[in-house]
Amino acid sequence: MPHRPPMGWNSWNFFGPGVSDRVLRETADALVATGLRDLGYRYLVVDDHWHGGRNDDGALFAHPERFPAGIAPLADYCHERGLLFGIYSCAGNRTCGREPGSFGFEERDAASFASWGVDFLKYDFCFVPPDRDEAFRRYRAMGDALRRCGREILFSAAEWGACQGYVWARDTGARMWRTTLDLVDYWDEPRIHTNRGNSILTILDLQDGLERYQSPEGFNDPDMLVVGLQGKGHLGLALSRRPLKPGCTDREYRSHMSLWCLLAAPLMLGCDVRDLSPATLETLSNRELLAIDQDPLCLPCRRIRQGPIFSVYRKPLADGSVAVGILNRSPWRAVFEAQPGTLLHPEEPGSAGPAGPAGPVRIRDVWAHADLALPADPSVPVRWTVESHETRVMILGEVRA
Ligand code: GAL
Question: Ligand 1 mean position to 97 CA, how many Å?
Fold first, then answer.
């Protein structure tokens, strides 16, 4: 298994229950045609509602009208195009959409998935008693079944952190685990906490303190990206029933992308990749940002500063440099000021000495794709304008002689 945050696309955010063989093949083609596959978005995952039922032998089968040839030809179609194929099931006896779940059928279902050519399983948490031991047993049962099924299938635990799955999911065989409830296509105001959906900033803030559960062997999953949904699709519908106006600005989507990459989160697209605006494609295709997400250290960022306007996040990178994200939460443009050295080497709580290197620092602006001109003296502060809801991302490194 690659020791990098998995990347791909998942059907839920846009298609919801409207998945079919046709839209998934079109999506596979679009992942190739847009260049997203070549950037690393390789898993194509069908979420809930692919199901037809269980036959008399207890085997799952796909919906006969929407998947007339079953799942295997669709997985083949993906493989032929250099993609990997993922599917969805649940640790309850029903999925969240009340389709048949895998509880009690773990071996059986893992064998079906393997025989269809599945490479990834998202495993949900509906209809499970909210008990940590029971949750562990159920995820372990599927993790064991996948290990024995004869095919490498990446196990993604979608337990939402309800029973602190981020603490134990790794021991079930999972390689990524949801830390929080569903993310919706909504920036923040008013801030919403519901049992069905949370804003980008709510989900971001709930990641604080969970950094220690992540390593190159397993990833905290703050949920799929909402970049580019623009209030459309299944998530948009769900939100507008609240009633709240769904959708974010392109700048907010760039922020969301920046923050998920700083978190070293799995990057599962949720928008309709058959119909991408140029701005969305550019946001999803920023190679410098993707390299931060995929950095071999796999360390999530930590919040190193919080003020009334700015949150500052810092993520160490394998080459000794650091990625820094400066998020402006306010409704106004604002100027951020700092000595580069204090971002590169922030002062540890309790330490006496001054932070920062003695020598010069280089700074790369990841969205401008440019090296920034710096004062010769590294103790002179830099000043960066950050627009409302923007996250500026910089890579800082010491200049070695
Ligand atoms: C939720 C899950 C979503 C989606 C949905 C399908 O529990 O968090 O990502 O999979 O179920 O019904």
Answer: 8
